[in-house]
Amino acid sequence: MIRLLIWLTLALLLAAAGWWLAMHPGSVILDWQGWHVEAPAFLLFLAALLLFVAGLVAMRLGHYFWHEFPLSPAARRIRAERRGREALKRAFEALAADDASRALDQAERAARLLATEDGALAHLVAARAARQLGKSERAEDHLKTLSDDPALSLVGLRARYEEAVAAGRR
Fold first, then answer.
1. At what angle do helices 73-96 and 100-113 cross, to 10 degrees?
2. 0.70 cut: is pTM over it?
3. CB 131, CB 139: distance < 8 Å
4. Which among 160, 164, 105, 148 is positioned nearest to 129, based on CA atoms?
5. What is the CATH T-level fold of the domain 81-167, as seen in this structure?
6. Domain locations in the chain as residue ranges
7. Which of 61, 62, 30 has its CA nearest to residue 47?
8. H-run or E-run covering 36
9. Are 106 and 95 in contact (CB under 8 A)?
10. If exposure means fewest CB atoms within 10 Å of the residue's CB, which of 57, 72, 105, 136 is most exposed?
């Protein structure tokens, strides 16, 4: 609201300055280093206003490209993580609703999109969904992926052990 008031005040001041220049016509003569320019005051006021607006636009574009550019690697990574978390949430929902096929698809999508920590959870959900679907090779692949990661090897080995116990092959 305050920003709107500032912009309205600025617009009123510019309109008042333009009205004053229209009521008091004149010309500006500039003689500088051999250059001689003679122009109406209103034209110079308009040129200054256009330069000011061009500067504002340039500053806004600079801010956009520096901080908010949607194709920057940071923005792409943030969007991928957001999509991965949404896919992981949908995988949990599908697993809770006994829709193992959808859970497996969403968990594998989440595993592709998420970083290591959240990707581990996605691999665990995918392994459980694959086990429910009877796809033991796929479940084993997800658990092996966890076991191969040094930071998550204990989680993967524990899940593989539980899978082996459930299958009766200690």
1. 160
2. no
3. yes
4. 105
5. 1.25.40
6. 81-167
7. 30
8. strand 35-40
9. no
10. 57
